[in-house]
Design goal:
236 residues, three-stranded antiparallel sheet, Four Helix Bundle (Hemerythrin (Met), subunit A), Tscrpt_reg_HTH_GntR
Length: 236
């Protein structure tokens, strides 16, 4: 998703190509932070990063400034920028807030969603289910396909919600939680049926059962937190 489109898409990346060099650099930096190639606490030295990303110092500083609004980067005044730290207390706070804002967006979406919303949700769930069949192999391509379709599915769930501020907050929190999820994404020993979790939300949403859908979504978000907490005791 481009920085300028955060109010229109919460989860799914936009198809639009970056229109400026700054936007392209921002997206590359954001992905490298989320996927851990730029680890928590790392000093973001412009003189080093401009060669890594093949851009000038001015473009890089502008991109880093954009990342401040994602809370993925922290400013150290005259000392520049650093990748935002991570902790389990931070993830716990993110998790609680996600339950509140995503649950409300889902409620509004179920109430307001029309036939087009239902059709979009059915299509997104079908694609996600197909990609989940491949996920057990843990191949890079399969994982990335699942990640894209997972974002599309969650976007389809709230597509009926027209609150631009809810979308902005959801996207901000989701990208924060992605950082933590990427730390454990390669682990195979997590006993969890993600497809069943997605199915529970999907079935309740299509049935227009707001309370059941919200409860299933809350379970889904909390199970992600529980899996990360189990595998990353060092972050306590």
């Amino acid at each position: 998703m481009l920085h300028s489109q955060k109010f229109t898409a919460a989860f799914a990346d936009a198809d639009t190509e970056p229109s400026t060099l700054t936007e392209g650099t921002y997206l590359q930096l954001r992905r490298d932070i989320i996927e851990g190639r730029l680890p928590p606490g790392e000093k973001l030295r412009v003189e080093h990063l401009k060669d890594r990303y093949g851009v000038g110092a001015g473009t890089l500083r502008e991109a880093l400034s954009l990342l401040l609004s994602d809370a993925l980067v922290v400013s150290e005044g005259q000392r520049g920028f650093r990748v935002a730290p991570m902790s389990m207390s931070d993830l716990e706070d993110i998790t609680r807030t996600r339950v509140l804002v995503e649950g409300e967006a889902l409620r509004q979406s179920i109430i307001a969603g029309n036939d087009d919303w239902e059709a979009g949700l059915v299509a997104a769930f079908h694609k996600l289910s197909k990609s989940e069949e491949k996920l057990g192999e843990r191949e890079t391509g399969a994982v990335r396909e699942w990640e894209a379709r997972n974002r599309e599915y969650h976007e389809a769930l709230i597509a009926g919600c027209d609150s631009r501020w809810l979308r902005y907050l959801i996207g901000l929190l989701y990208r924060q939680s992605e950082r933590y999820r990427h730390l454990v994404i390669s682990h195979r020993n997590v006993e969890r049926d993600v497809h069943a979790e997605h199915s529970a939300i999907y079935e309740a949403a299509l049935a227009r059962d707001v309370k059941r859908a919200q409860a299933a979504l809350e379970v889904h978000i909390h199970l992600t937190y529980d899996a990360i907490r189990k595998l990353l005791p060092a972050l306590e």
